[in-house]
Amino acid sequence: MKLTTLNLQGFTNWEERKPNILAYLQEANPDVVLFQEVVFLPEISPYNQVQLLNETLGYSFEHSCITRLQIGVEYETYREGLSLLSRYPVVKTDTIILKKEPLDEHHRIVLLADLLVDERVVKIANVHFSLTDTIDFATGHLRETLDILARRGERRIIAGDFNLNHLEQTAELWQEHYIASTHVSYISQPNLNKRIDYILIPKSYHFDDISVSGEGLSDHCAVTAVIQ
Fold first, then answer.
1. What is the pLDDT of residue 54?
2. 123 by DSSP, 3-state: which?
3. Torsion sign over Cα 161, 84, 208, 201
């Protein structure tokens, strides 16, 4: 399975970036694409960015969960969430709301999706944790996500914008059961020279390849992995 994750950066400079996103995804041709910072702004479009992209990409299965309401800078109500495109049937989805710390400006969610891949169910979690600068909110979100999955008896492919510049520093939380894309050196937020987008896979899987897009898709690069 080939999987791509990309933070879409809302509708910022959308018409300029959209052709770059389409060109990359058409060339990389992933089976599954996970998107973060997917927004619904009816002032701009009655469709979110993933729905607009899929008019050209033509993935058979599409799911969006835009549940986060925020105060927008330009628009009064800013609706944001997560989305996925898949060539495999999506047999089940769920959305988990993570705990919000008092000083965190954002409510965060996790999008869970079960895909039917060659008659086998592959479980995926699409994540976008809170920004970690002076206060580390993201590690708490990662810990809570892993705890919820463990209590459900699940080992999922976890991918997205972790907002952690050094995921390896949280290895005690996941290294017993997961392998991280950190064994490959890459930058996923080039304007800040950071790597904050990752893919965690259960140890029953392995990475065949990990690659990163060029710039111009958003303020993030897309991370693509071939997973067996």
1. 98
2. strand
3. positive
Within the chain, where are the H helices? Answer: 14-28, 49-57, 138-151, 171-174
With bands split at pLDDT 50, 70 and 90, how would you rate the model's confidence at 135? confident
Structure-token pair, residue 16: 């300029």
- What digits encode the pLDDT tens for the residues 5-59? 999 999 999 999 999 999 999 999 999 999 999 999 999 999 999 999 999 999 9
* Rounded Cα gap, residues 157 and 155, in angstroms: 7
Radius of gyration of the chain (CA): 16
Q: Which residue has the tokens 């999706």?
A: 113
pLDDT per position as a tens digit, 151-180? 999 999 999 999 999 999 999 999 999 999
Query: How does 113-146 read in b/e, with b if 16+ C-beta sit within 10 Å?
Result: bbbeeeeeebbbbbbbbbbbeeebbbbbbbebbb
| CA 166/CA 142 separation, integer angstroms | 13
Closest CA to 5 of 227, 225, 226: 225
Give Cα 58 to chain centroid, integer Å: 20
Task: Give helix 14-28 / helix 49-57 axis angle, nearest 10°.
Answer: 50
Sign for the CA dihedral angle at 167, 12, 98, 199 comes to: negative
φ, ψ of residue 122 to 5 degrees: the values are: -110, 125
Alpha carbon distance 218, 94 (integer Å)? 27
Whole-prediction pTM: 0.96
Tell which residue, 210, 211, 220, has the closest CA to residue 190.
Answer: 220
